Amino acid sequence: MSVVSFLSSRHAGIGRHVLYVLRSNPVTAVAAVGAAALLFIALFGPLMVPYDPLASDVPIALQAPSAEHWAGTDQLGRDILSRLLWATRLDLAIALSAVGLSFAVGAVIGGFCGYVGGRLDRWVGRFVDVLMAFPLFVLAMAMVAALGNRVENIVVATAVINLPFYIRFARAEVNVRRNAGWVEASRACGDSHLSVVLRVLLPNVLPAMAVQISLNLGWAILNAAGLSFIGLGVTPPTPEWGIMVAEGARFITTGKWWLVSFPGIGLMLTVLCFNLLGDGLRDILDPNMRT
Amino acid sequence: MTDSPLLEVEKLQVAFSTRHGVVEALHGVDLALTAGETLGVVGESGSGKSVTSLAVMRLLDRAGRITGGRVLFRSRDISRAAPADLRALRGSVISMIFQNPRAALNPIRTVEQQIVDVLSAHGRLEAGAGRRQALDLLRAVLIRDPEARLSAYPHELSGGMCQRIMIAMAIACEPALLIADEPTTGLDVTTQQTVMELLSRLQKERGMAVILITHDLGLAARWCNRIVVMEAGRVVEQGETGALFKEPAHAYTRRLVAASPTRHSTLADLAPDAPPVVPVRREHKPGTPPLLELVRIVKSFGGPSRAVDDVSFRIPPGGALGLVGESGSGKSTLSRMVCRLLDPDDGDIVFEGESIARVPAREFHKSPRRGDIQIVFQDPNDSLNPRYTAFDSIAHPLRRLEKLRDGAVLATRVRDAANRAGLPLDLLERFPHQLSGGQKARVGIARAIAPRPKLMILDEPTAALDVSVQAVILQLLDRLRREEGIGLLFVSHDLNVVRMLCEDLVVLRAGEIVEAGPSRDIFQKPQRAYTRALLDAVPYFDPQRLMRPQALSA
Fold it and tell me: What was the ipTM of the complex prediction?
């Protein structure tokens, strides 16, 4: 058996495993299709939109959905469908980078706390407690207000308020494994404490954290949209779901339902999709689920 | 009691639905038990002995169900009884004790509360007398200082005491049948013996029937009237203990009997099919320093007593030394220090004339000696990274210590190590959960020998394995030592196993050396009372001892 065939047979095994998980769990399969569609829209949406999302055309403002404008137009006559598709890229980018950031930082900090224990663990633990004592959304608002209304700051604020969950989660998961035989075995195999945490323990807590990541993605999207909704996030006229909901909300009393409904449905489906994806993601990442 | 059996299992079939379809675990098991009898169910892991007991108790998990046959208890079929009837039966008329007593007790309730719970669940609680009833039960299981234990939580008690409390709860409602599933596995040998003595005494006092499920032929032989041998979901042989073990009829029973170490067996006796070992003569110049020398090692974890106290010994090049003691004797701490995973407080560890204790354990992964000292861990299930395939596990030390990249050289070295450890190459791409216990043990050994160490520390490498697998693994280790000259530090609680593999022996107790010297001498003429107690407690499989089973005397 050559190394190449050895490696390829392992990848074939992973492919089969993914198929098995999706087949045995139709909800995950639906969520996976949804997530793939979202990613596709985020990548290629701007190329396929029918209208410029920023071009206003006041004469056709506030038109109901029609053959020309499938989702209607807003108060400046911009095409809502185009804005919706454009916004997917920004919203997903904010959510993914915020969750990625808090996962990377939180898993490493939590991993070391769980492995080392002692004073480091106590201090970080108290810091996390203090952080969690704040109303998290208010904390994010304060951070964006202080740092400025920029996309990077929304990402940082969203990442910071998610950090405590990752730290606690990684700490607990690493802590139960740190005395396992295979951890000692990797030290006998020449791993330093550092590489035990980063290369041995953290990959092992990944399946459990996948659920957290997935749930968090939906949450981060809501958080970013929420910040934009109250005017502390992305600034108009940039298309963003939160802004679109905020602007559309003014017209709902006059029966112009499409301004708020379509971005709202987009948000809801996206969050739902990520929430449903979590369990499947864990099953895919967990080697114990393979046969 | 009449002569009609208390429990009859007829053609019992159990199937589990799994990802690969329905898997049949029991293919028609028949057994019978009369009141007051002790029946031993022996077999190796996967033979279906635990599934049988769970099916009798109707405690199979959701995936499993009884697909055929009957379970008659006092001539009543309980295999299809209603859940409410079963609840009334379980814990009162039929009760069960499990392998890991600590896991079976509720950690947040006191001993008294848990015993009272059992009594009240079956309407046996006398008003206002719960405490007295609990106390009586604790006295019945001969627990020391029973008044104080009533208010204790499980974590405050030793494993042996937890098992006594499990037994107290199991006999609380005076059951007619007690099922004991590996009741002493995981306990120290001396504790094992007292727990078994207690069980057999209670059985006679109360006229209970007992089903003892065990992988340990020595234990079954010593305490059971009749034996049922199971293999792969079938009963292959059953009969009266003495006759069955004296002249086993079935090939599987014969293999089990052969693999069970007796007082006089050698490694070659245990697995007669193994190829003979060709020892390599190694020339050692007179001035060669010992492979390993421990000088007055001391280690304390901050408690009132030291975990390791002033321990010194040496292993010659290619030698094998056994380190024997019960849990808490400091043998694992010592092995971690020799493996340089832990720093001693005082003393020196000299490896081939070079002091290696000066490099702190934290930095030892960089030492050129790291690959020379390797360790095989106790529980093969716990010692392999769940995310690594067998290939990755064996490649791990090579990648880290020899900086080998993926490629032909690495693959060759991994396959070579797997071959030397007797691991079939087609298993290399499997994950640990796809391997059996014996296969995992081989992966652990292959990983340890991959960097070509000079000293291998074996921390109870066979404690979690079936006897036939144990026999093969012991032979493998002996072969590695004799053919490749790898020195062994064998850490174990089982004196008999150590005796076969090691010429020298160190007996530890509470961190101190009780007795040290050549294995043969210690085994034949133990100088210290503690060593004698250890030797007596090992439940040897000994056909001579069967002829007068203690279970019937007393």
Answer: 0.78
